Amino acid sequence: MPSLYRVEDADAYNKNSMQELAWAIETSQGEFSLILARRNYEALQEYIVRKLRQVCAVEFQEIYLNQSVKVKSLYTTIKEQLGDQQPAAVMVFGLESLSNLEQVLITTNQVREEFRKHCPFPLVLWVNDEVLQTLIRFVPDLESWATTTDFVLSSSQLIEALAERESYLFTRILDAGGDQFLANTAIFGSSYRRELDSALRDLQTRGDVLDITQEASLPFVLGREAYINGQIDQALEYYQQSLAFWQQQSRRCETQQQKTQQQSSFSSGLGRATQISPSLGRWSEEDHTPSPLECQALLLFHIGLCYLNLAELNRSQTRHHWITARGYFQKCIDTFEQAKRPDLIAKFITKLGETLQRLEAWKDLQGLAQRSLVLHRTYGNPLQLSQDYGFIAAVALQDCRWMGAQQAARKALELLTRLTNTSGQYQMSYLLLLAKAKGHLGQSEEAITILDRFP
What we know:
The protein is mainly alpha-helical and 455 residues long. The protein has 21 helices and 5 strands.
């Protein structure tokens, strides 16, 4: 395979492959032939198919497989979907999505002669490396019938895609905030991990390396993957790697900003000052690329989540892990403050409040609740405001301010009614606070009525 670093190299390679595929389809009219179109990236597949429609003289019918399509063998599935039609060519997509791929291929191999008898047209199966290896391993007879055509992305395209994916990941998480954990699959789609592994493998095979920024983005992606799979120690290791990089980037940006300010002051003294962007050290707002400080804050938040998780897993060390989580959540908020992003503080401050409540650090929780209340009135939503009032009610109960606790709990519940879809845990928590407050105010019957609503 020739060098594939430049986009032009991959374009030339894919053009030749497309011509081969079009020729194979056109010359197999009226008879069965099996063609494997190998690609590792869905976007590349979509591009090639779109171009192929323009250059191929034969129209082809498309069949898409996924988890919702019950597939026992390719032969029966294709015949069922075609019915009485006799297409000039058929393309099958989505083999990699089948959880029972091995069995599907084995069953298909057992009836492979039926293709020659009843399918007088070229059949193109789109496969990735894993599917191709499964074919070779489990159904070599079927694989030996096929010709294989490869389609590739250049190394420069892969590196660019990794950088864009990193930026998109940080941006999506910052947009979503800290109230819920968005899994990588929810952000990128179900095929993201498979394509990530393929990109790294392709680059390694070609001897092309990532620059330091792309190298740093991978531990964050992999750390989130480890976290969602319950591998907390592994997640922490990945997060710390990424955090170290973004801390270094923040220091470099700060140093560069100081140098620029010194140059600006010197120029100003000569009457030749030029305006320096106040966002130096960040990328422009237009491209929505998070700054190193914002990335650093996000890593600190994720590390805090790990320690909350460890607190649940290791009961003998629960309080120790809560204290550690509190420290990281506080550093996260401090870093967002350093980045002058009060909107992001508003999105991520609630986890710190929940941790303070677990630690029964009531004085600190009181101060945080008052601060977050101000922030959420400007940048927040009813759920976040209700959580603020929940914190205030909890602190008031500890301070024996029963009326204040009652008022705050009622306000928290009232804010929840503005939401169409909320977790019942919030309502139950605020009802319990309200019942306790009423009990201390001598309103025992009302408190009992509230408690009767609990399941």
